[in-house]
Design brief:
alpha/beta; Rossmann fold; GMP Synthetase, Chain A, domain 3; 4-stranded antiparallel β-sheet; globular; AMP-dependent synthetase/ligase domain-containing protein; medium-chain fatty acid-CoA ligase activity
């Protein structure tokens, strides 16, 4: 389903009310063979589809039913049992899917206990929204993000506003605020950037953003310079951390960018990587089995029964954390040293994004030294000749030299031969726009094979 309309939300919730378990697929999942495989894994009995998807479901091995025109029809004279809270907390209510950025999407069944916990997290007075609030949906109802926003609205008794399409323009957001009464914007960081760009030169639009109760963003990190600009100019940013598996788990305040675990979140932080002193220590987030927001047993670690998020944080204060990437953001070098590739990428972007590069991926797992693959700010540099290309690489090395020399030697990238420049859009990305490091590593495996024997001899 498209998942952007009231009718789509009604189908989703009505199926649960009728005693079925909806398995939700976004219309963006365009490969029907993947949908059919996931239907089989989920034990589906039938496929309900948006009429626009009809060409994609012709080969479906299950019965198919178009959802066109269901709203407005006279329902059959069937009485249903009284709505009560299920006594079985382990009962599966709905099945979501991961994004499938590295492999086939995984089924994410969510239970009564899990969903009740999600709603309870937002009922505490210190974070609960006003009943008068109007909060925007963040995406398709087929994804967990909208269920989180719906839970937030339920906890407060507030109103949910559904955008007609996503992404939407600053003009459309202006209309949502002016004519829709929007007071809380919920949005992915990548869609927030063009809103800030418009606000920088449009005072009227900026003032409308300034007048919002808050701006919730989630899904991945907001570019540091964008977040700094927004906070410095008084916009009330709230950073939510969560995932399809654990829901909303931590959030920041409008005055601090650091996230804090929500009440009833089962956040457990275990040391990750090298044991370091002070605030430099990294921690991996896991959710213990006894916590109500621990996802379905099928998703838990087999050895300890807990859910390992794979996300890494740095503790910066009491119950205050900053996201530092994924477990697989850490590259193990040839001599066993650990390299925090995610942090290195963030440092490079901070220094070089304004005028030199638009994206970077640090690779080099199992090598003597890391390497860097960058997309330039302007593709014209790729046609400007070897001297210009070398100058770009040397400029990157020059700018990053200071912070690199503050780190261990195995982190340094000081040889232009270890910087590869590719056209914009070349680096493989997830549906959320994040660069897939492992895929980049495979893409440049031969280049690294050729490069490292040479660089190790110099």
């Amino acid at each position: 389903m498209k998942g952007l309309s009231y009718e789509d939300l009604l189908h989703y919730l009505s199926l649960i009310r009728a005693g079925y378990v909806p398995q939700l697929f976004s219309i963006r999942m365009q490969d029907p063979s993947i949908v059919f495989e996931l239907l089989a894994k989920g034990g589906a009995a039938a496929l309900l589809y948006d009429p626009d998807c009809e060409p994609l479901v012709k080969q479906c091995p299950l019965p198919t039913i178009s959802i066109s025109g269901v709203v407005g029809k006279t329902p059959p004279d069937i009485s249903m049992s009284t709505v009560t809270t299920s006594a079985n907390g382990d009962q599966v209510l709905v099945i979501f899917h991961t994004s499938g950025s590295t492999s086939l999407p995984k089924l994410v069944p969510q239970t009564v206990r899990w969903l009740e916990c999600l709603i309870r997290k937002h009922q505490y007075d210190d974070i609960r929204d006003s009943p008068d609030s109007v909060i925007s949906a963040i995406g398709s109802h087929a994804h967990l993000g909208n269920t989180i926003i719906f839970a937030v609205a339920l906890a407060a008794g507030s109103c949910l506003l559904l955008p007609t399409n996503i992404p939407y323009s600053p003009l459309q957001l202006d209309d949502m605020i002016t004519n829709g009464g929007l007071t809380i914007l919920s949005i992915f960081p990548g869609l927030l950037v063009p809103m800030f760009a418009e606000a920088r030169h449009n005072d009227a639009f900026f003032n409308k953003l300034l007048g919002l109760e808050k701006i919730n963003f989630a899904g991945h990190t907001l570019e540091p310079k964008e977040e700094a600009w927004a906070r410095d100019n008084g916009l009330k940013l709230i950073n939510f951390y969560g995932s399809t598996e654990i829901g909303a788990s931590m959030m920041s305040t409008s005055t601090s960018p650091y996230v804090t675990p929500l009440a009833e979140s089962g956040c457990e932080f275990i040391p990750f990587g090298e044991t370091l002193s002070g605030s430099d220590q990294l921690f991996q987030l896991i959710i213990p089995a006894e916590s109500d927001d621990c996802p379905h047993p099928s998703l838990r670690n087999k050895s300890d029964g807990k859910f390992h998020t794979g996300d890494v944080f740095q503790r910066v204060g009491k119950d205050q954390y900053v996201y530092r990437g994924r477990v697989d953001d850490t590259i193990e070098m040839q001599l066993g040293q650990a390299l925090d590739a995610g942090s290195l990428e963030a440092d490079v972007m901070k220094i070089c994004e304004d005028d030199l590069i638009s994206a970077v991926s640090v690779i080099g797992s199992g090598r003597l030294s890391p390497a860097m693959v960058v997309e330039p700010k302007d593709n014209a540099i790729l046609e400007a000749g070897d001297d210009k290309l070398l100058a770009l690489k040397n400029q990157i090395i020059f700018r990053t030299a200071l912070f690199q020399k503050q780190k261990y030697a195995h982190v340094w990238i000081s040889d232009a031969r270890l910087i590869f420049v590719v056209a914009k859009g070349t680096l493989p990305r997830t549906p959320k726009g994040n660069v897939m490091r492992k895929a980049v590593e495979k893409m440049f495996a031969k280049d690294l094979d050729e490069c490292f024997p040479t660089t190790s001899e110099t």
